[in-house]
Amino acid sequence: MTSPVWHPFTQHGLYEPIPQITSAAGAWLTCADGSRLLDAISSWWVITHGHCEPRIAAAIAAQAVTLDQVIFAGYTHPQAEKLARSLVEMTPAGLDHVFFSDSGSTAVEVALKMALGYWHNRREPRRRILVMEHSYHGDTIGAMSVGARGVYNNAYAPLLFDVETVPFPTKGEEQASLDALDGLCRASDKPAAFIVEPLLLGAGGMLVYEARILAEMATICERHGVLFIADEVMTGWGRTGTLLACEQAEVRPDILCLAKGLTGGAVPLAATLASTAIFDSHLSTDRAAMFFHSSSFTANAVSCAAANANIEIWRGEDVPARVAALGHALERGLERLALHPRLANPRRIGAVAAIDVVGDGTGYLSDVAPRLRAHMLEQGVLLRPLGNTIYVMPPYCTTSQEVDGLFASIAEAVDALP
Ligand SMILES: *Cc1c(COP(=O)(O)O)cnc(C)c1O
Fold this sequence. Notes:
By secondary structure, the protein is α/β, with parallel strands linked by helices. It contains 12 helices and 16 strands.
């Protein structure tokens, strides 16, 4: 019997097998047939410490029998209050207000609505949004609008709003990118905001750029009074080596988006943090100026409890040291892999390593990615290349032996490519 389940980013017509995962612990998944898979991409970039982290699981269990869910418009609860305070403490200065939602895409939608609402309520309406080339901010309409256009959103192009794009700051061509941002900010029709993935563009191909460039971009926006939105949905919670990627550039965004690793990856939750200026632009005795956004599960209590448990781990343990150790193991593996004649452009930041398969027929829809994925699956590794880009982003509990095995499997899979 075929399953009624319609999977995300999956062409069911290709009949690729869909493994059933029945349990998980640490860096490993267990399949229905009893085989095990190393989760080399942290289950789509969400798992940070490891699967079923006992303290996070315990917090979820306890909260589930205390308070599960309550309307968050006009009501509050201790887990949300505690979490909001912690987030304000842990993130760059100036981000003093926390708006909860449920996914990275909604965190981005909220950020864009806050930015537009800010200018609207100040009676200086602005509508232009600046974005970085190759960026990805989610799959809802607004989030797609500010992300790169391609085959994955062609069908929806009529729904997407126009944005202006700053070239990706490729090594050696950074000045052109900075000049482009400056030029767009100078236009008489002032932009409302610039949204960017700090230091690492994820779905765009695991592209890395320098902290110095991020810092300069923030400075340009500040100089021209353009709101700076940091989408740390993927880069947050240690992935790039620090809690937030912005810290490495000492950037203080006006708006910050968090999701994925916010709960350690166990349950969905997102937060959009905003500056006092943005909050105050919505603060009034006039109901028409309030922030018009909600989703049913805003600040779900179980999710907030999981996030608070995650933060306890961050406070009690040296998570960045663990990421650094994993990063070293990834670096060694990457150096060996870089010698392979079919591989080029090795790059790494924190606990993320990537390399490109080169040669004919290696575009996004080529069969390089599914071939590698299938080969790795046979080797007991969950990997999901982005087009011709192979990347690994394992949970922080992954050992150096596991990393060595992972890279050996990748080398074999690349050898097996036609
Ligand atoms: C994954 C991602 C999103 C979207 O998050 P979802 O939870 O999948 O909606 C947004 N921005 C970035 C940078 C991401 O990597």
